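Let us practice reading a record.
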Amino acid sequence: MATKDSEKRMAKRVERRLARYQKKTGRRKRSEKARRAIGRFIVQKRSIVPNMITMSNMTMGFFAIILASRGDTRSLALAGILVCIGTLFDAVDGAVARAMHVESPVGVQLDSLADGIAYGIAPAVIAYQAYLSKLPKSGLFIDTGMLIALIYPICAIYRLARFNIGATDDDHISFTGLPSPAAGILISAFPVLEIPDFMFLIKYTVSFPLAVFVPIYVLVGFLMVSRIDYSKTLPLIYRKGRIVLILTVIAMLLLISLFSIWFIFIMISSYIVIGVALYLIRFIRKRRLMVAV
């Protein structure tokens, strides 16, 4: 009897082990099928990857708007930082789409819509909350600061629409008008320069008076819809070789890590000023040639 009981127990153990093995095997098969299905989905819908990167830029702009609406100096500075971070996503989404061979008109339109939020609406909200809301009130529902704040997003959205129309004729060398990312970064950087929280090596802060900020704000908006040519820096560097581009990116990241927002502010300001200066030089030369003729 003891032998028969032990045999029954052994048989039950074997059955339980077989049942557990079959369950594990079934789970493995299901997980393998799921992995294959996900892999096929990614291959078929590769455009999701660059589109998600583009939407990350929009997300940074959206969060920047919410933070700026709080109105305190730290939230405004953090909002400016988020606009700068969004530029990293904006810089790589096109390259990822080309590398994955998934460029499409939808991606172009999505990129411009995301830029409209990140570099058109968000900087304007930051500017209004940080500076333009301090302008004298008119007693009406819409005050002077709101009207001035409206200039920048109108110019930014118009500039993006004009860029989309001329995208097929893009020479990959220059932009017509100041690029909206450069404009958005510059405007968003002003509140960041007022507190040392997001500075590393140099913790020098500065507060810009309204008499300085308002003309810059309006001028940057008009530069976006101007006919001034601004060079495409990264594509021009890439033409000199991938190694040069990689070294340039590493150097920029190193300088940003050391000098934080000051390096970004000075770099963008120099880019804007050099573009205007070159335009004036070309304009004067043309006038002289016309007079000589």
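A brief commentary: The longest strand covers residues 174-176.
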